[in-house]
Specification:
about 425 residues, Growth Hormone, Chain: A, 18 helices
Amino acid sequence: MPQVLRRSRFRLVYFGMAVSLLGDASLLLVPGILAKSLTGSDAAAGLTLFFFTLPLCFSPFFGYLIDRVDRRKLLIVTCVLSGISLAPLIAVTGQDRVWLVYPVSAAMGCSYAVIFSALGGLLKAILPEHLLAEANGALHTTRQGLRLFGPLLGVAVYTGFGLGALVLFDMVTFLVAAGVFAMLPVPEPVPAVSPAPSGRRREEFWAGVRHLSADPPLRRAAVALCLMFSLAGATESLIFAVIEHGLARSPEFTAFTSTAMGLGAIAGGLWSPTVIARRGELFAIGAGVGLYGVAVICWMVPAEAAVLGAMAVAGAGLTLEGVARTTLVQRRSPGHLVGRVSTAFESLTGVAQLLSLLGGAVLVSLVDYRLLLAVVGLTACCAGAYALRGGGSRWERPPAGNRSSCDTDLSPQAPSN
């Protein structure tokens, strides 16, 4: 992404996120592996993502905060608190303490909700609109691409040096990221917010939801993604069943499936700005969701090569969808609403994913996993087709007044670097 990387402020943001994401990728599989290894239960492993997703249901609270404070300072504080929240994992030494993985997963979910929503608003403030897709593509590619070696690194450190060393490594990456964000040369101006009566505060709180429901492209994207995630969360339990029953491998094989997904994610992240530029965000969302649906169906094939290849396709599809979704929110939302619109989006899809996580954790022990994979895959394909119907329409042009200030502001607050 040479053009966007010429901007010094984005380079700092990118480096800070890359360091933090390296630690996250290394620790990504550990809660699920711990739960599976200590309890022998696929459902216990899948519940780690349930608790990770749970905070997304309360994302509007985070969005209200994000739009009222300096997002740069918020990123710094969140990174520090995120590092501290990982410490309880060190105490998980037996089955009697396995419950600790769940509050830690919830804390990681809070961190995710705040960091990525605040980041979306920060990027809109420091970059012109035509670079948003490139910036989002670079960050999503890095985030998913770290699956290439992050999980393998995590499993290697966990096996060779123990859980404590891995947790300390991730804590350090959060602190380094906080330091990098503190180096941003120009803090983002804090929106002027005056005290408001309770009725007005309620209006401000739900402003993101109202904007999301009133904007046709955002509404169509939200419906499509809610449909997909209403079942897709079940794959967090199903993947353990695929590995154990379909491939006859141990839970640690998830490191290789995640690595395969990382390979696909790199391709999807590099490809996404081109797709968005040529066909629009809704088309990219539909294509990404459809690819994911086809990939999930292919997980039914009891062969390692087929499953790993399908994981790569799933990674490409999810990254394409993620870049397009983030860019669509940034382009279609005023700067002072980006946080609330983004978290409203996360809340809607998070509730759908949460319900499917619960259902998957229960059904994986009662229903043949292949039947569940078929239902999830076909539903995702239908959701992708719904989004594709709106792709390339006149709705995808950003409404007047929603452009990034960097497109029109030639003052010193919007420098070219």
